């Protein structure tokens, strides 16, 4: 892996990038800055909000290669 110079002051886990450390620290702080405008549920990571919003839009971006079903 490479050097991991960004260490969490709470648990000691280390990360390569400072942005990854900041996202990790939300586990300890409980911060969930990404809120769903549809239902108000909040998430620690924007990527989790993107996945959640598919519940409201009905988007199913993944197709099964063996059948016509989408997920």
TrEMBL record:
It holds the Pfam family zf-C2H2. It is found in: Nucleus. It comes from Trogon melanurus (Black-tailed trogon). The keyword Acetylation does not apply. GO terms for cellular component: nucleus. Its main location: nucleus. GO terms for molecular function: DNA-binding transcription factor activity, RNA polymerase II-specific; RNA polymerase II cis-regulatory region sequence-specific DNA binding; zinc ion binding. PANTHER family: KRUEPPEL-LIKE TRANSCRIPTION FACTOR, SI:DKEY-210J14.3. Residues 6-33, 34-61 form the C2H2-type domain. Belongs to the krueppel C2H2-type zinc-finger protein family. The lineage of its organism: Eukaryota, Metazoa, Chordata, Craniata, Vertebrata. This is ZN552 protein. Keywords: DNA-binding, Metal-binding, Nucleus, Repeat, Transcription, Transcription regulation, Zinc, Zinc-finger. SMART domains: ZnF_C2H2. InterPro entries: Znf-C2H2_ZIC1-5/GLI1-3-like (IPR056436), Znf_C2H2_sf (IPR036236), Znf_C2H2_type (IPR013087). The gene is Znf552.
């Amino acid at each position: 892996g490479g050097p991991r110079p960004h260490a969490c002051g709470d648990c000691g886990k280390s990360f390569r990038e400072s942005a990854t450390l900041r996202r990790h620290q939300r586990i300890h702080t409980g911060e969930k800055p990404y809120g769903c405008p549809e239902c108000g549920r909040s998430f620690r990571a924007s990527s989790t909000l993107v996945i959640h919003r598919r519940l409201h839009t009905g988007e199913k971006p993944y197709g099964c290669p063996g059948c016509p079903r989408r997920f």
